[in-house]
Q: What sequence folds into this?
């Protein structure tokens, strides 16, 4: 039982139905799973479908968007079939989410204490005093000094790093099975980023949570993720363990992301770039969705989209460069 996935996503498709009969295929047939105590990272540029994947799991997709196909299972339960009322009991309790900007996630007119206590009392059978004690303990757990005083303060009185620690305290308040962190360090400076990510790892190990880490920064993957999904154009283009993917990168898009990172061991005048931008989800190229930006594009790439195939053990790639090797 211990090795059963906490989360299973199977062929998830989330589309947005726009004006002029346009359909934005924001998430288009992705599958993955996360084990207890495991961190899976979804990496990609803005517009690749990372955040929509997270919001789909939370069932927070609003019109004109909807989940059109696929399954989402939490501990074997098909949560994509649950009613809004049933999902309300799961959100914050079994699944918690940390958003990328804590200032907009915390209510500015309520104290920190009020907001944490509200979550605890909503999902757990505790009195107000018990919830207050639990909230103070949670703030101490995530490394916030003066926890009793912080309880009485408002979000604008805290720094970005402190607010993000409060968000983590709220996220773990009901011992969730799955923690989703959507760009949790975007608005923070580098030193605070490392502190927040280290804290998430500590909380994951302490509570044996499954963690879905969403980031555009492939640089943090090697230290904080066990498994990596590289998304582009609403699809997974490469999938492997973090160690394998960073040492033996296959897809040209993943290579481009890695080459855009500074390397302390190399003296270069200019970092690598990926030409162009991610196309809008309602106007992907006919063939491979990366074909308009790929340095290795072939005629075949413009005609049809390759399948995600296994090129090495547990290493999957969506690219015609490797389909030929598969057939040999």
A:
């Amino acid at each position: 039982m211990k090795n059963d996935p906490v989360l299973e996503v199977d062929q998830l498709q989330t589309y947005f139905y726009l004006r002029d009969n346009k359909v934005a295929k924001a998430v288009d047939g992705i599958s993955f799973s996360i084990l207890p105590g495991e961190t899976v990272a979804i990496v990609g540029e803005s517009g690749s479908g990372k955040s929509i994947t997270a919001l789909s799991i939370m069932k927070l997709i609003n019109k004109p968007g909807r989940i059109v196909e696929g399954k989402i299972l939490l501990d074997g339960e098909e949560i994509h079939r649950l009613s809004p009322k049933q999902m309300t009991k799961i959100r914050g309790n079994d699944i918690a989410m940390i958003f990328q900007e804590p200032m907009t996630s915390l209510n500015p007119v309520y104290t920190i204490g009020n907001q944490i206590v509200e979550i605890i009392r909503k999902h757990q059978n505790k009195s107000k005093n018990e919830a207050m004690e639990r909230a103070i303990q949670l703030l101490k757990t995530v490394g916030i000094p003066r926890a009793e005083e912080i309880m009485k303060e408002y979000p604008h009185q805290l720094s970005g790093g402190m607010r993000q620690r409060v968000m983590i305290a709220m996220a773990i308040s009901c011992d969730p099975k799955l923690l989703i962190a959507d760009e949790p360090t975007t608005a923070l400076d580098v030193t605070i980023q490392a502190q927040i990510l280290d804290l998430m790892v500590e909380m994951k190990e302490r509570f044996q949570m499954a963690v879905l880490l969403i980031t555009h920064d492939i640089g943090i993957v090697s230290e904080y993720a066990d498994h990596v999904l590289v998304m582009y154009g609403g699809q997974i283009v490469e999938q492997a363990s973090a160690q394998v993917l960073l040492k033996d990168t296959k897809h040209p898009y993943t290579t481009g992301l890695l080459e855009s990172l500074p390397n302390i061991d190399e003296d270069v005048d200019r970092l690598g770039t990926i030409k162009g931008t991610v196309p809008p989800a309602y106007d992907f190229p006919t063939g491979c969705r990366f074909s308009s930006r790929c340095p290795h594009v072939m005629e075949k790439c413009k005609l049809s989209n390759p399948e995600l195939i296994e090129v090495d053990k547990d290493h999957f790639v969506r690219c015609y460069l490797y389909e030929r090797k598969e057939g040999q």
